[in-house]
Amino acid sequence: MITNEHVEKFVEQARRYGKERWMLCSSGDLSWRIGNEMLVSGTGSWLRDLKKDKVAICRMMDRQCINGVKPSMEFDFHAGVYRNRQDVNVVLHFQSEFATAVACMKNKPTNFNVVAEIPCKLGRTIPILPSMRPGSSALAKAVVDAMVNHDAVLLASHGQVVCGRDFDDVFEKAAFFEFACRIIVLSGGNYDVLTEAEIDELEYYKFCRGGDM
Known about the structure:
Elements: H1 4-18, E1 29-34, E2 37-41, E3 55-59, H2 75-84, E4 90-94, H3 97-103, H4 117-122, E5 128-129, H5 137-146, E6 152-155, E7 159-164, H6 167-186, H7 196-208
Parallel strand pairs: 5-6
Antiparallel strand pairs: 1-2, 1-4, 2-3, 4-7, 6-7
Helix pairs in contact: 2-5, 3-6
């Protein structure tokens, strides 16, 4: 059962994300799975100064809100990710400056592995989804399907979604996603990416030798 302490922690973490300027005003949304229920930032709320009365508590089984707060319009893909990923407990949808600039490029990069942290933290590939109406069932389905096997997706002309096991995991993934996109934008497209052999070596170091990447 979700307690007042859970809500307070959720508010604290939402404000932590908001301070990073990863979303403007009411853009972006955050959710946290707790057992068979989930906390979701409410429609129109600003994560940087989220209040407890703007946090929706929803049941996972039937996706019904049980505290009278209307959840974010992107609630469906948050719930869908949790249904498919038992390893995921936090989902963040955001619009950070450089990653969103990449999302709006005509010629978007197909490889984001400019630094070792990307394949190590977010995976070797980051899917790019076509432009779809925010809050639509089509967008929700596309995000849910893409995140079955990925921890991050780029939404064309929209933003990004990352998921992870806890708040620190998601914070780290969002930070490195934005860092990689900053490199891509500031390089003017003139950048190198890690080779598959180099990524294989990183995987060996990380998983076989106990390295901390």
